[in-house]
Hints:
This protein has helices at residues 38-46, 51-59, 73-82, 86-89, 118-124, 136-142, 161-164, 169-173, 183-200, 212-216, 222-240, 268-276, 316-324, 335-342, 411-418, and strands at residues 4-6, 9-11, 13-16, 19-22, 28-32, 61-66, 95-98, 103-106, 129-133, 149-152, 204-208, 244-248, 254-255, 265-267, 286-288, 305-309, 329-334, 352-356, 361-363, 379-380, 388-393. The relative contact order is 0.20. It is built from 15 helices and 21 strands.
Amino acid sequence: MSSKQKNGVRYDRVEVNSRTYPWPTSPVVVICVDGSEPAYHERAIADGRMPFLEQMLERGSDLRADCVMPSFTNPNNLSIATGVPPAVHGICGNYFYDADADAEVMMNDPELLRAPTLFSEFSARGASVTVITAKDKLRRLLGRGLKGICFSAEKSDQLTVEDHGIDKVLERVGMDLPSVYSAELSELVLAAGVDVLERDRPELMYLSLTDYIQHKHAPGSKTANDFYAMMDGYLAQLDALGAVVVVTADHGMNAKSAADGSPQVIFLQTVLDGLTAGPLGTSTSRVVLPITDPYTVHHGALGSYATLHLPKGTDVDGVAAELRTLDGIEEVIGREDACRRFELPADRIGELVVIAERNTALGTSPDRHDVSGFTEPLRSHGGLTEQRVPFLVNRKITELPAGHRLRNFDAYWVATALASGQQPPN
């Protein structure tokens, strides 16, 4: 087993959030392919567009894992980064309602994070760590406490060694600054990852892509296959550089459209305003859609998961019963049950959690969602039907602990074991 010495202390393993990670003897690269349900790479392989991944999986491991709920970007990226669910790290959406402050808050502030990341803990012990994200919203959260390279492709024209651990990335990889709504944003993350791995050989690397393509294009479509073919080339380079590579996702993706291509949406605020103003309540309720973030052009803040904040005096069970009668609703769950089942922080969700069926999205009211920019039928995520994600490894996993439910946030637990010549521990 390899180890690292810093300030007279030798580390051969690091404990983070009550999980133990061996010190890797070769670089570990975890890639979060945002929105990548398994059908994307399966179709691309079947269509001959990912020859390297096909070969890699023959000698490696082709597994499936569950992401955390809600199946949104921030909760899952932070779970991968911390190795634990939202109940521990506190990030339960891209957005939440702070009842104490009576304010709706984007979950981009690092101060909202309640647990250290593997990146900060490994770097504090002398490891070289690199985190590259597509969007800057994640860079701030993932970079909390990290001493190393940490930057977003979105802001890669503004990098300094002092603030980001690196500069001149666009020059280094020979790319122009991409649009935040483009496949090239993800390509820049991968190209920069290959460049840093070749030059610096960090012990830990995290590459987090964007789901712009998956929101607009179904598995097997030409545009989707082109995107995965691009990714295949970078996977081959990372593998050739000797890294242990785990490819997973923060969530899957499904169509949320009616037969005519229009968004299939239940507008919960409209429904609730009618219920809670009548015999089931005393005043207006609040619908929070945790998919909401600064980048809504491709999904219009429409996902399949919502939390409901109901005023005192509301018949919560009565509201839940009424919502369950709506076509397109899969589950309506009380706070206590939702926290237990989905490992959520109780103080950051409402009295009820609502989850839509596979092809249905949840909104507030029609006037609060701009779908004018949609050029393709709505595809989105957030529900239970987007929870199954790939877990692809360029090394063979011979066994997992008996009864272990593989999660996307097991990525570094698996990868550091393999990179130190072990199998994931019992």
